[in-house]
Design goal:
Chain A contains twelve helices and no strands. Chain A is mainly alpha-helical. Chain A folds into two domains: 1-36; 47-255, MetI-like fold, CATH 1.10.3720.10. The longest helix of chain B is centred in the C-terminal third of the chain and has 38 residues, at 168-205. The model of chain B is unreliable at 257-262 (pLDDT under 50). Classes of the chains: A mainly alpha, B mainly alpha.
């Protein structure tokens, strides 16, 4: 008896946490048995087991593979572009007061407004092909990166900068020796946020006027009342986002171990 | 504030305004004298200005904004009412934290907007579908920020209240609430952005009115100046809301402005 209690005590957080998720799935699974729903409502209803079966079928017949590659390419290309643009701009805005003042109105306005509002314009300019999606992913992901890099640069220890300067370092060397290493944890935190935004961009971008991609698959399934296919898509996006988020979080905590206080993210 | 500080603040504002004006001027100049453009695919500030005048004087834009903000307010209020107590209980009761944290973290980390087609299917294209979407997207910032705020309450202060014979009620009102409030306001700032995403996606996806629908409709009919007016109107609202909350954060807790959990 005490053995069981001890076992439970040591693992209480995990048991309760996993237990709740399992309970949720079980209740969802058996709910049709004790709630009788009308024909109309059952059209919108599915259970975890049906979703799993559908998931398997879609993998076997290659539907998922076909859509997945398109979505993955949009995600990777958009995120890559946002790193290529967000990082340098964050560094520049953090180091140069004038550039900061000049570009601040645009950064504030674009960051506060959901970048999705640009989607109709991007579709007009770039068509319903892959480029409008890559650009919406880019727009969504670039600002968390830019703003976090900026915050990292702004928070650099002035004493260290002055010290390197007084030993004759130029702006480039200050950047390389002090600023960049100091802002790495901020940049990684920005990357974590950017991944979430990029996933959102892929999903929503493909909802509207796309023919390929997981988002398009979901939108088409929803209008055909194939609720289980929609949930397969949701599950894939959830899984990918969770894996990425926790991987980056792991890197983040490894990089910030030496810091006395946690990095604030924006 | 000394003279130099005032000057720096002033300089920043001036540079920002100069940069905005010169961009607009350059855009107008380039499209008037340098490039001949196709009005189907591009537009210029003077056309946007004319469209803005027409739309702002008419009733349509205001009606769209009112419809969108109604959906937003319903969803957002529900998120406040559900999110803050949930977060508070999670921060205050250990077992509740263990039970709910993994589940909510999973939901928060995943793009819940992927559920949009389903939610529209179930709740319809009207007010309720959008409100549910807004709720779903904006509830987790409240949950997690309240949770972090309660968790990071200074244990010393709690002990002080307890050892001076304070009741639980005093603990909540005098210690936990003030130390959690900045986190909640920061959470609200995040939630506003996500809530607007909810409205926009809901209206892009299926709607016959609302600001998101208006932007998509003007886009579909190649009326770019009108579309830009819609985008700019939405930006102005979003900037005003977030900046107001940022100021509010500084006012209620100047010592820890900008706190947010994730």
């Amino acid at each position: 008896m005490t053995g069981v209690v001890k076992f439970y005590r040591e693992r209480e957080p995990h048991i309760l946490g996993i237990g709740f998720i399992v309970l949720f799935l079980v209740v969802w699974e058996i709910s049709p048995l004790w709630i009788s729903v009308s024909r109309g409502v059952s059209l919108f209803f599915t259970t975890p087991s049906q979703i799993a079966v559908k998931f398997y079928q879609l993998i076997v017949d290659g539907t998922i593979e076909e859509h997945f590659y398109v979505s993955a390419w949009e995600f990777v290309a958009g995120l890559g572009m946002s790193v290529a643009v967000g990082l340098p701009f964050g560094l520049i805005l953090g180091r140069s007061r004038t550039m900061d003042a000049l570009l601040d109105p645009y950064v504030t306005a674009l960051n506060a407004t959901p970048r999705l509002v640009w989607l109709p314009l991007l579709i007009i300019w770039f068509g319903i092909g892959i480029w409008s999606k890559i650009l919406i992913v880019f727009l969504g992901a670039v600002f968390p990166l830019l703003i976090n890099t900026y915050a990292g640069v702004k928070n650099v220890d002035r004493v260290l900068v002055n010290m390197v300067r007084s030993f004759g370092a130029g702006e480039w060397q200050v950047m390389k020796i002090v600023v960049l290493p100091y802002s790495v944890p901020y940049i990684v935190a920005g990357l974590r946020l950017a991944i979430g935004r990029a996933a959102l961009g892929v999903v929503v971008g493909e909802f509207f006027g796309a023919t390929k991609g997981l988002g398009a698959m979901m939108a088409r399934a929803a209008s055909a009342f194939q609720v289980d296919v929609v949930f397969v898509g949701v599950a894939i996006f959830m899984g990918i986002s969770l894996i990425f988020t926790f991987a980056v979080k792991k890197i983040e905590s490894n990089l910030t171990r030496w810091r006395p206080e946690a990095v604030k993210t924006f | 504030m000394d003279v130099k500080e005032i000057y720096q603040k002033y300089q920043r504002l001036v540079l920002g305004v100069i940069s905005l004006i010169s961009l607009v001027a350059l855009w107008e100049f380039a499209l008037t004298y340098v490039i001949t453009f196709d009005p189907f695919f591009f537009t210029k500030p003077s056309h946007i200005g004319a469209a803005a005048k027409e739309l702002l004087l008419g009733a349509r834009l205001w009606r769209d904004l009112a419809i969108s903000s109604r959906a937003f307010l319903w969803g957002f209020s529900a998120a406040v009412i559900v999110g803050i107590p949930t977060g508070a209980v999670m921060g205050w009761r250990r077992r509740v934290e263990y039970t709910l944290d993994p589940f909510f973290t999973g939901l928060y980390a995943s793009p819940l907007v992927a559920l949009a087609p389903l939610i529209i299917l179930v709740f319809g294209v009207g007010l309720s579908g959008k409100a549910v979407l807004v709720f779903l997207l904006s509830v987790f910032p409240f949950v997690f920020n309240t949770y972090t705020g309660v968790k990071s309450t200074d244990q010393l202060l709690i002990n002080v209240v307890r050892s001076f014979g304070g009741k639980e009620r005093h603990l909540y009102i005098n210690v936990i609430l003030p130390s959690t409030l900045p986190y909640i306001v920061a959470g609200a700032r995040l939630a506003i952005g996500r809530g607007i995403v909810g409205v926009i996606v809901g209206e892009f996806y299926a709607a016959s009115e609302g600001i998101g629908f208006a932007i998509a409709y003007f886009g579909d009919t190649y009326r770019l100046p009108e579309m830009f007016v819609g985008i700019i109107a939405l930006s102005v609202i979003a900037v005003l809301l977030t900046e107001a909350l940022r100021k509010f954060e500084v006012i209620i807790a100047p010592y820890r402005a900008g706190m947010e959990s994730r």
